[in-house]
Amino acid sequence: MADLRCNVAGIRSPNPFWLASAPPTDKEYNVRRALAAGWGGVVWKTLGEDPPVVNVSSRYGAVSYHGKRVAGLNNIELISDRPLAVNLAELKSVKRDYPDRAIVASLMVPCTEDSWRAIVPLVEETGVDGFELNFGCPHGMSERNMGAAVGQVPEYVEMVTRWVKASTNLPVIVKLTPNVTDIRASGRAAKRGGADAVSLINTVQSIVGVDLDAMSPLPMVDGQGTHGGYCGPAVKPIALRMLAELGRDAEMGGLPMSGMGGIETWREAAEFIALGASGVQVCTAAMHHGFRIVEDMIGGLSNWMDSKGYATLDDVRGRALRNFVHWGDLNLAFETKAHIDHDACIGCGKCHVACEDTAHQAIAIEPGRRYTVIEEECVGCNLCSHVCPVDDCITMVPQEATATRQSWAERMREPAE
Amino acid sequence: MHARIEAGRLDAATLARNFADAHAPLTPARAAVEADRCYYCYDAPCIEACPTGIDIPGFIRRIAAHDLKGAGETILSANILGGSCARVCPTEILCEGACVRTLAGDGAVEIGALQRHATDHVMERGLQPFSRAPFTGRRIAIVGAGPAGLACAHALAMRGHGVTIFEARPRPGGLNEYGVAAYKLAGDFAQEEIAWLLGIGGIELAYDHPIASPAALSTLRATHDAVFLALGHGGVRALSAGANEFPGESLGGVEDAVAFIARLRSAADKASVPVGDRVVVIGGGNTAIDAAMQASRLGAREVTMLYRRGPGDMSATAFEREWAQTSGIQILFDAVPHSFDADDDEPGHVAAVNVFVRGEPRVIAADMVLKAIGQFYDAPLGDTLALESGRIAVDPEGRTSLQGVYAGGDCTKGADLTVVAVADGKRAAIAIHTDLMQPGS
């Protein structure tokens, strides 16, 4: 059984699965249920200054994709709407009973040094293991110059991080917003400010849909909508890219990362870890299925690591990062071609029409709905294998190299003939 | 009437349940899930398998996209009786049998149920997707208001022709009205669908008006620009015992299954339809199954089907056969009846069927025997039209050997299915239109 113990910038937990700062970690009741279910840690829903914010009624919008519910979730809830003292008392109580779990407090206060310096010691007193600075909330708080409004300005990220670091000896994680053009600017700013780790991604600014009867964005609050934060399985690709971008950035210098965005099973968690995350955070999947999903996440990750011979998370961490290269470094001499297994083929023709209409006209129809690859035309784009509904019917077969390895970068360095 | 042939064997609630929709319509949620199962094949085999060539992936995609009106229009533009075909088609040997998901081993998309979902949406709201072209001045007579006649009438009316349908029976619908099991077209669906179809306008119906002689056909030809014959099957095969009459065939309690089904379909109150206590049905087609199932649902205690060959030879589909077998109908295969015995107490009435089952003689007690060994075109128009294999000979577009006379449905060659009849009617309408509108015609 693999060792799943996790360490994110000194914050330890028995497994890498934390609940992200969000509705599931809003209060003691939920958090105790989560920890009892086996979650390695929680990042408590963001604490702010009193008086607490007021949340609206109707808070989530969701994208269903062909019968699959909650492929993406959009949320317009703000930070904790409960008095700070209540949250602090509950944090303390939970940490006392769960010393082995990671209990991290998420913070967001106005962008003044006094505000940050005031709240940090109050929260530290509860016994929490560290802080996560919420520079990511994309709605509601950003209009009040908090959340993403800070996270989108690298100078502010650095400044606030510095204030917090000066107020505590506990590890400080800076949570990054994806609503920027270059995540590296925010990540580097956090590092300059002294952050012990970054966590990413926060939610993506979004309108989840439009009610075509009411002509209002969704979710609707009394006939109107606003943009919210998008999360869930749909955002995983965006999160992985941003994580990997920071993971390979020399200036980040291997700063620990807590990865999140669309993690639903152990497999996504492994992907984040392989791209450099020390641990992961989960929210939407728990909101969709309940806390018990952590059981199969722990079991699945452990079984997979055993099957691969990985003993600890450190053996996995960043292992795919070395293969995350710039396009210009990819091998132009590599070729792969589609191969259709005619025994498995059910004759739906989706590969043909996809290739014929939108790709390279490389799949022919023969009598009897027999679809075959025209090898000379196939560029190995993979489209057919993605649209084929039958597992392993279309495989992409690497071709024997006919030229030596050469990347675009190398090609451009060659003297013109 | 024989003592054991009784009406009202079951209470009203049970009868209502027994003759309600055999297959409940899909809920919107189930329809959405099922529609999402369609792969939207290129060159979809299901379209090819549908005699009317409905764009099945196209209509299913519209259901998935919540455009039920568009889905209904897609179906009805290819098959104006798409509502009843959704209910009565043997989909397992047509569209669903061809579905690539069958090959994939995970069950065909429920095309029939989805088709019903979409067509019900259109009909329940009384939507009329089609409109009639300006009157062409041409008048066409159609003989028979069954599926072929109705499909032809609609397609002609849409093109602006004036149509009169001559129907021998008091109600339109043909086998949809008189021949299909009640629980397949529950409620008054057949009539509701026809009323909707006639909404196109330009179609008149003359009931109780058989065209059953060469002279009657001549009159029609003289008074109309074209005639479409959709006569159906007029004949029911008799049992045979070599060249002789089948011993006991004329006994009381022995009748054609089609007559029993027609009586049952016409009865507003199913409790008024008499049925035996022990019923034997002879035959292996859908009519035999429909008769057996409905006898059972009327309250017959023992229903036995006798089929002379094996399960794979039945013209009823495997789905229908298994449905019957799991509904309390006993089917004896390799069962060849050779005579009926009369009742000792009531010598004019049947009491038993003598049958060889796999060569072994057996006696099956019966107070009602329903014969369903096949129907045929009984050629009421004699040899005024060329026949082929006993039915009216037509070219691929439905033209008969007589100028201006077209034919389709069960009186012509092809599978005896509602959907085939609709395809015939539609095709003939296009041929009639093309022929009539030719310059100089």
Automatic annotation (TrEMBL), chain A:
Catalytic reaction annotation: 5,6-dihydrouracil + NAD(+) = uracil + NADH + H(+); 5,6-dihydrothymine + NAD(+) = thymine + NADH + H(+)
Gene Ontology cellular component annotations, sorted alphabetically: cytoplasm
Top EC group: oxidoreductase
Entry's EC annotation: 1.3.1.1
InterPro entries the UniProt entry points to: 4Fe4S_Fe-S-bd, 4Fe4S_Fe_S_CS, Aldolase_TIM, Dihydroorotate_DH_cat
The keyword Metal-binding is annotated on this UniProt entry: yes
Coiled-coil region: none
UniProt KW Iron-sulfur keyword: yes
PANTHER family: DIHYDROPYRIMIDINE DEHYDROGENASE [NADP(+)] (PTHR43073:SF2)
NCBIfam families: PRK08318.1
Role this protein plays: Involved in pyrimidine base degradation. Catalyzes physiologically the reduction of uracil to 5,6-dihydrouracil (DHU) by using NADH as a specific cosubstrate. It also catalyzes the reverse reaction and the reduction of thymine to 5,6-dihydrothymine (DHT).
Protein name: dihydrouracil dehydrogenase (NAD(+))
UniProt source species: Endobacter medicaginis
Gene name per UniProt: preA
Automatic annotation (TrEMBL), chain B:
The name this protein goes by in its record: Glutamate synthase (NADPH/NADH) small chain
Keyword match Oxidoreductase: yes
Top-level taxon of the source organism: Bacteria
Keyword annotations: Oxidoreductase
Domain 4Fe-4S ferredoxin-type: 29-59
Main EC class the enzyme belongs to: oxidoreductase
Species per Swiss-Prot/TrEMBL record: Endobacter medicaginis
E.C. numbers: 1.4.1.13, 1.4.1.14
A molecular function GO annotation: iron-sulfur cluster binding
Pfam family, one: Pyr_redox_2
InterPro entries: 4Fe4S_Fe-S-bd, DPD_II, FAD/NAD-bd_sf, FAD/NAD-binding_dom, Helical_ferredxn
